[in-house]
Structure formats: C-alpha cells, structure tokens
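User: quick one, sequence for these tokens?
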C-alpha cells in the first residue's frame, strides 16, 4: 500500500501498470472444492519389513574321509598295469616295420594268391586294429578306475568284464603283435604282468576297508 499525503492508504502501482497488492481476499492454492472434505496430508512411506530371524542351522560341510591303504595300493597296481600295457604298444609302434613285414606273410598264408595291394591293406588293418583294441581297453579301464576313486562302488564291478575283455583281446593280438625271436618273451612278460597287476588291484577294491570307504559316500 502507498500512503498518500492525506493519510489514506491506496493500492500502489508497480512499473508494469498493475496495482499491488491485488484486490480481494487471497485464496489458498490447495483449497478443496466446496462440499468435499479436505485432502489428508501426505504420509511418509513406511520402511520395508525387516526379515525374520532364521533358527535353522546351516547344512554341515561334508568331510571326505581319506582313502584307505587298500584303495591307494589298488590304484598303484592299476597304474603299473597300464604302464606295462602301454610299453608293449609303444614298442610295437617303434618296430612297426618289422611287424608289418611279418604280418604280410601271415596274411598271404591265410589268403594265398591275393592281390599285393589288398594284402598290404589287410596287414595294416590287422596291425593297427590290434593295437587300437588294446589301447581302447586300457582307456576304458582307466576311466572306470577314476570313477572308483570318486567313491562310486559300482565301477569296481564294471572293471571285471572290462578286464576279461582285455584278456581276450590280448589272446587274439598274440598272433599279430608278438614279434619273432627274443622280443616275443618281453612282450609276453609285459602282458602277463599287466593282467596280474590289474587283477591284484581289482581284488584290493573288494577288501573290507575299501568296501567301507566306498559305501561311506552313500551314507554321507
């Protein structure tokens, strides 16, 4: 308000030409319409509920018992068996020229008058097939050995037919992979050691201490 010289207050004029303050009573900006209750004041957001307390104990950590001596000795015997078998295969590979030449004569006796190319192909199939069958038997036994060491008792039963099949493959491969002369005794000695070591290692897996260690995995 601007006070005049006669003492009466009159609304003033600002620089834009409008009077101030505006005439009439000021209304609040958030006044509710007539006939409706006023809006409630905003409430603050409630905090999220706290999680409840858990009284359940955590799951115990499974402790793997150490392998008994029978399992460790059985594993050592099987590994020695694999080494003996691989020694025969490596020796046969290094002396493959002599084996192929000898097998050529065996194939010619079995099929006289055959084509030279066919004889060479059959000789290679016999030699590499025999070595591959023996290597496959060793790999399958090694895989089952790993399963046994993982405390799966059924795998020791699977080793029985695998070892029997390995022995049959050896009997067939005698005519193809056993060289002439003094080398034959070394091959037969290594094959015999391979079978005996594997059999001894298999027996170790069925002893009472090994049986209890394997069955403890199911109890845990």
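Assistant:
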């Amino acid at each position: 308000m601007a006070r005049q010289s006669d003492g009466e207050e009159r609304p003033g004029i600002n620089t834009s030409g409008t009077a101030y303050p505006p005439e009439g009573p000021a209304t609040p900006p958030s006044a509710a319409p007539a006939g409706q209750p006023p809006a409630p004041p905003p409430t603050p957001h409630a905090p999220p509920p706290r999680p409840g307390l858990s009284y359940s104990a955590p799951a115990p950590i499974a402790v793997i018992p150490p392998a008994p001596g029978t399992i460790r000795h059985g594993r050592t015997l099987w590994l020695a068996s694999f080494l003996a078998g691989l020694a025969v295969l490596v020796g046969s590979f290094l002396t493959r020229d002599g084996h192929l030449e000898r097998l050529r004569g065996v194939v010619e006796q079995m099929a006289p008058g055959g084509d030279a190319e066919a004889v060479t192909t059959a000789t290679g199939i016999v030699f590499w097939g025999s070595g591959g069958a023996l290597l496959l038997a060793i790999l399958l036994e090694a895989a089952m050995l790993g399963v046994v060491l993982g405390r799966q008792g059924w795998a020791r039963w699977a080793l029985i037919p695998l070892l029997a099949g390995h022995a049959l493959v050896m009997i067939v491969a005698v005519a193809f992979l056993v060289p002439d002369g003094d080398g034959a005794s070394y091959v037969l000695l290594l094959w015999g050691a391979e079978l005996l070591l594997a059999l001894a290692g298999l027996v170790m897996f069925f002893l009472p201490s090994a049986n209890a260690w394997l069955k403890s995995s199911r109890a845990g």
